[in-house]
Amino acid sequence: MKRVKSIAADEQDVQNFNDQGFLRKLARYALRLGRPVVEQLYALYFMLQSQDTPMRSKMVIVGALLYFVSPVDLVPDILGPLGFSDDLAVIAMVYKQMKIYLTADIRARAAEATAKLMQRMR
Q1: What angle do CA 108, 29, 19 make, to 5 degrees?
Q2: Signal sequence span per UniProt (predicted)?
């Protein structure tokens, strides 16, 4: 019997997270997602990179970011606004749980990255 890999992220997933794939998809859909969601995604991304975020929390963050990047969703992204509803729910839930690791520096970096991206998209 074949063993199926869990969808939960582990330490190896944290180490192997594909920054470029995440940043590419974020840039591609930034206008559709809207500024608040983009800022939350950047905040999660910067929390993932932070030395102050515990590994267990990083695993949760990677799980959410991988779900966002993954072409396999409960609701496919190609369905327009409805396509991101499941992604948005996961992002919002994880962001709320991880807010305790959201420092002023990470908040500022996320706001700055969001402003730069949104400016580029216009």
Answers
A1: 60
A2: none
Show the tokens assigned to 29: 């859909």
Contact predicate 31/14, CB 8 Å: no
Q: Token digits for 100?
A: 């305790």
If you ran DSSP here, which 8-state letter would residue 12 be given?
H
For 77, list phi and psi in degrees, rounded to 5: -60, -25
DSSP one-letter string for 33-97? H-HHHHHHHHHHHHHHH-TTS-HHHHHHHHHHHHHHH-S--SS-GGGGGGGGHHHHHHHHHHHHH
